[in-house]
Amino acid sequence: MIQTIPWGAVVISGCMIVYVIFLGFASYSPSFENKNFYGEYPAIAGNLPSIYRGMRSDDSNLNSSISTVSYDPWDLCDLPKYDVWDEEIIPYVNPNKDPLKDCDRTFKPFTELKNSSWRVVSLNKNLECKTRCHRRKSERQNEISKWNFTQGPVDCEFLEAVCSENKEDVYGYLHSQVIPKPPIEKPKIDTAGLMQFDVFVILLDSLSYSQGKRSLPRTLSYFTNHMDGVIFPYMNKIGENSRPNGIPIWFGKSLEKIDRSLFDEEVIPPDWSHKYFCKTFKDNETNIFSEFHDYGYRTLLAEDWAEGTMNWPNCVGFDKPPIDHFMRPFQNAYERKGQGAPITQKHLKGGKLCRQTHNTLLDYMGQFINAYPDQKKFGWVWAIDLGHNSENGFTHADKDFHNFLIEHRKKLDNSFVFLLGDHGLRFGGVRNTFVGALDVNNPFTAISIPKVLRNTTNILEYVAENAKNIQSHYDTRATILDIMKYQSAKSFTETEARQFPEEKGYSYIRKQPSTPRNCRNMPIPLEYCICQFKKSKVPRNTKTAKEIGKALAFAVNTQIEDGNFTGNCIKMEWEKTLSLEMYDHQFKGATLYTVTAQMKEPSKAEFKSNVKIVDGKIKVLGMVERSNRYGKTADCINENKLIFFEGWRSLTWVAYVLYFGAQWAIGAYNFVKTDEVAKNYFREEMILRYNVCVDNLSSLAMVAFDPSSGDIRWWNLMTVVNMSFIMAIQYAIMIHCGYSMFTKMEEKLQNFSTMHKNHHKQLFKTLMLQGLYAATICLIAIQFVYRYWAVFDENKLEFFEGWRSLIWVAYVLYFGAQWAIGAYNFVKTDEVAKNYFREEMILRYNVCVDSLPSLALVAFDPSSGDVRWWNLMTIANMYFIMTIQFVIMIHSGYSMFTKMEEKLQNFSTMHKNHHKQLFKTLMLQKYCSVCGNSCAFAKRIAWNTQETRRQGRCDLDIEVMEVHH
């Protein structure tokens, strides 16, 4: 009986259902996609909707302790007084933490870059060393030269060196140097009458005042004693993280609003919106670097992070930075995959070489100082890695900063030197202490003035006096501008307070206005204010505590709704109020609180803010600040089900396909075997029409009713149920996902740019066509083989029977796997491809390419021009697969076409027609699959081109990315 089973038909049917199931996957998988929000979380502030405006505090014990005073407490600023070694903070401090304790202090670099010439200094004769230059091409991409094996002169500031031994890379190193530029003969500003000094800024990210005192004792001892530096204990940050604190110093522009509703005043909006800051190059905006250049200074900027203040997370920064010496190519080579050699990108990790990223910054600054002995200089170093995530990140580096100040003491003694922090440590348990909670808003600030001015002017006196008052980063900016523009014109003898045009702060190297300095009069958001007000802790389990906590959660959710992120983020639900403090003094009848509340799982986010209750109504003031570590930030996003397509979980879908393929095949084998009833039913018809005896054919047949008795043949009908069940599941998936994407796409994309909308719509169209071509071609190739052998060599049809039919299952799976594995390995989007598309994707689609699932083929390295053979292998792989299929079809088809009349001459007319119809069917299938897909692709190109022409540009470069998403 097994010989009569048409195994070829079973196998081909199984392959078709596998294909349909794969198409179902293709439709379903995008519904799993994590819906990322590309950009920053917006500031949370402002009024609450009416639902919470009616909230009332019914806890009389809270209001009874409030005293009403005749003066306005906000006109005062009680500055914090505390011990930086307070007992409460000791458990968080570890002065012995040193990531370099096990490094090899005897190690010497194998190569040297000196006086614009490189050489090998290692005595190992088996080393083969090479170098290449890195220059800036864009913020995220370098222009990289070809490898140079000849020691000698180089004309770049950043040189990558790699040495190999026995053809294995054993050494990678990034060298830096400053190649001096000629003096600026005619600065934009006439500097003839100015008394100019060099200005150097060393900013340590997340360094607070108290942390600086604890972690940098040697540096600060030398800075205050030898350099007569003055430390500012009461510096107040003006933004949450690095950017809104750094940009006000560089550009004088605010990035966060200031909520003045507590004082019944208008909210002060930010100078720049997030969109404008991130999506517009800042070359044309006046900044501190360009202004120093206008005054004849040579400038430097060095950050030890490839994204940096101007670019994170997906901002364009500068197109052509107004900076003479910009260290970004060094960071790109070190951090970005594909820009530096793998071994080079390891040389600062793990502490093996006793060298960290802050050492590279200090080296570059030192080279800058030495490169211009006779030109004025402005240099800014921003060290991010050391303390951004740790209370104990700075201590081991104290000696490095101390040594830098000593090594360059002669030059620094005649310069203005700033030691800054942008803010304090923002995360961790230390924030639960009084000192830690204050630190986050109290960045380190210290200044040393030139020795010549210490005894000939009163500047030190004014600086020391101003250090007793609250200051902000706007005052630091005003001080730097004062050094550059105003005091320099008066030989640093001007003493009276002065408001500089369009500036928000006051210089602290002169007198400051006598008006009270507090968070009401200064541009400092209330939520960051370090002024101390008398507060009383109140119970956390009262009705008021609960209502305030819920109002805080509601404020977060309101901002999520206002930003149209409800489809991206879960709704925050209040779980408990962690702390609640009430201000002892009322303000215009309002009771003020500081609250910290925890949200329910999965986020477990802790938010902190100030609120006021007036006339029983609760209002959240200013920014709502996240006070615990972000950790798994994506927990506030819908669960990312794409993990089921990664790693071992992807086997779920292999099992899914095999299960339904097996169910289809086993069902066909069991339910529609050709029994005697079916044979009798078809016997006469087959003889009459085709002159073929059904007993000699391998076949499957479904006869729903017994021709003799009229009884229903339920066993046969089960195959209909089986097939309908399988197909219903697949089409339900495809219809549900397709319809959902079609109907909800406009809603999901309504906040996207036009180009971003087009991008997603094109992905949807591509999704509907993907996989169709290759799967169809492979299946048709198998049918050509079957028909060819059926006509010319029936003996080989045994390969379509029994266990041998598994050959064709393997055939389809093999080439499918080869295609998929080839795409996965050959066109994975590496750093070179990401850098190639990143800026374009941000500008055109407002999308960060790092967050997109994508495949990209970049045939040539944009930096070096080298052929990327690994990428090109995907073309060879596709051509190989398709060539095999088309050779089979062309050979079989041509043979059948030319020899069919000869082979069929002894067949009946009906039998001839039967075979000719089969041949035409095969050719039509082939033609439709080729032309149909080609036309669809052509339509996509035409549609996309038409759309982009309307906007005056063509997106064919991006099309490469879209097709593979």
Automatic annotation (TrEMBL):
It holds the Pfam family 7TM_GPCR_Str. InterPro entries: 7TM_GPCR_serpentine_rcpt_Str (IPR019428), Alkaline_phosphatase_core_sf (IPR017850), DUF229 (IPR004245). Keywords: Membrane, Transmembrane, Transmembrane helix. The keyword DNA-binding does not apply. The chain crosses the membrane at residues 7-28, 653-672, 687-705, 717-742, 763-786, 806-827, 872-894. It comes from the Eukaryota. This is Uncharacterized protein. It comes from Caenorhabditis briggsae.
